[in-house]
Amino acid sequence: MKKLIVSLIGVCLLFTGTRANAQISASDGTWSFGGGFSGFTLGGADADAVKRLGFENMIPGFYFGVNFDYAFSSIDGLTLEPGVNIFHYGKAFTFGLAEDHKSYHANYLQIPVNIKFAFPMDSSPVGMAVYTGPRLNIGIGGNMFSTGKTYPGLKPIDAQWGFGLSVAIAEAVALRGEYNISLTNCLRDNKEFNFDDEIIRRNSFSIGVSFMFK
Question: Which CATH number applies to 2-19+31-213?
Answer without folding.
Answer: 2.40.160.20
